[in-house]
Amino acid sequence: MTVWRSVITGVGGYLPDRVMTNAEMARIVDTSDEWIVSRSGIRQRHIAADGEKTSDLALNAAQRALDSAGTSASEIDLIVLATATPDETFPATATTVQAALGITGFPAFDVQAVCTGFIYALATADNFVRAGQSKNALVIGAETFSRILDWEDRTTCVLFGDGAGAVVLSAAEATGTPQDRGILSTHLHADGTKHDMLYVDGGPSSTQTTGHLRMLGREVFRHAVTNLSAVVHEALSANDMTPNDIDWLVPHQANKRILDGTAKKLSLPAERVVVTVDRHGNTSAASVPLALAEAVQDGRIQKNHIVLMEAMGGGFTWGSCLARW
Description:
The longest helix is centred in the last third of the chain and has 22 residues, at 217-238. This protein has helices at 22-25, 33-40, 54-69, 93-100, 117-130, 217-238, 256-265, 277-280, 287-297, and strands at 3-14, 18-21, 44-47, 78-82, 108-111, 136-144, 162-174, 182-190, 198-200, 213-215, 248-251, 306-313, 317-324. With 325 residues, it is α/β, with parallel strands linked by helices. Helix 3 crosses helix 4 (93-100) and helix 6 (217-238) runs parallel beside helix 7. A five-stranded mixed β-sheet has the order 1-7-6-4-5, sandwiched between helices. Strands 8-13-12-11 form a four-stranded mixed β-sheet, with helices on both faces.
């Protein structure tokens, strides 16, 4: 049986020029490099410049993904952009990127699932491709989380950074088996009863303000390791694979301890886990595509490698995507 698969043909990442080290953080709040590294593994993060918007970061990542794919903007027929920090309440930041690329007329919209946003966006675009409604989709994760941080709360402001990552998905005929190249399956979940563990205390219809990020770190950590290992096993089971079949785990870069805990539950060697959290911090929806772009560009991820992406974010939301490169 012939089916359509979404093959990742290009990747791109973009980080703002400004780097904020832990030493600089220690001048803002009562913290230290040792305190931050021991609890998160983070040593630095990138911060968007004044006037640099989420759409600016997204556009740079998108252009790099298009260049990587050898695809022109005119060939794109769908843009799905994952962000929890849009330029404006509306219109969608995706439409701003669409206009900046000089293309119009096709669907362009945002997806909001916080740190799981890129996985949700991939699943959405993949379903467009499978349904024959898209031939070349641009999927972006972009955030300026520095704009919603409480810079007096040392438990949260030290963890997050800004950035963007993007991929081009191109439709390809396939057999419908796990031997196909492209996205093999996606798996999405949410549990709204965990709202109070990770949220922003503002919004247009509640406070008419942007608000600040609030988090119960220990509870998030506990749920993250359990949910992420479960959704990874779900993806493997759906494709008759085991952890031994994974060439690369590309996880959401929230906390090095969460990455280590998930890898341990999967009995996965550390050298097969892509880690950028030490240099990027938690960039929410941008973290998976940023890590993916780095591992592709430095040659770690090669054709036919099995790549498993996973993430968990506020909501709670969590999900995974299994792909053959």
